[in-house]
Amino acid sequence: MKTSGNTIFIxxxxxxxxxxxxxxxxxxxxKIIINGRNEERLEKALQELDGAVAIKGxxxxxxxxxxxANELKNNYPDVNIIINNAGAAFGYLLSEETNAVEKAxxxxxxxxxxxxxxxELMIPHLLQKEESAxxxxxxxxxxxxxxxxxxxxxxxxALHSYTVxxxxxxxxxxxxxxxxxxxxxxxxxxxSYIGGENGILPSxxxxxxxxxxxxxxxxxxxxxxxxxxAAISEAMSKITPEASHS
Length: 246
Known about the structure:
Layout: E1 7-10, H1 16-27, E2 31-36, H2 39-46, E3 53-56, H3 62-75, E4 81-84, H4 100-126, E5 132-137, H5 152-169, E6 176-182, H6 202-214, E7 219-221, H7 225-237, H8 241-244
Parallel strand pairs: 1-2, 1-4, 2-3, 4-5, 5-6, 6-7
Helix pairs in contact: 1-6, 3-4, 4-5
């Protein structure tokens, strides 16, 4: 995948991992379009980017996603990379009276359903491009759950399964590549309530993504996630076709 000369749309691009990715890819020579709900944050982020633009909108809302997709296709027709980074997570214990169902529904909507919907809106446009990509920002949580994030991990496991299926679906159409990035605990406001200050810098996630694009590495584990990814890969390599269908 080329790493410059792209037009890249990033959800949740005004802070944290999204902004770090925006800065890295902007510095590499790409046009950046960021999305977020907070206009003040968007304007502040734009001051750190060269020639970038912002599309304000609530990623959780179906009608807003349709509007954003139409705005991209009509006003920024060169867009050829979508980075699905916006997310939601609630930290709580299932033993508490916390309305887990409502929290899980919010997480699943933003972390999973919204991505499927937006990709569906944008894929016909991307397939018209000589080179395009969908990049889903996943998580170390794909590999296991945490009692303080009891429903978040399930949304990322669902996203992983969908991403793999999407990649297989378009693997013969070389002009659309599908990537998944797996950050561990990262030092962002998003992760502050679960000890994010002990995590890696968002810039490390951005560095790994750029390296993945340069090398057509569709699975991009970051930091601690590399240990889990390597262990899973080794285990899967030992499974014979006969065993996998038994």
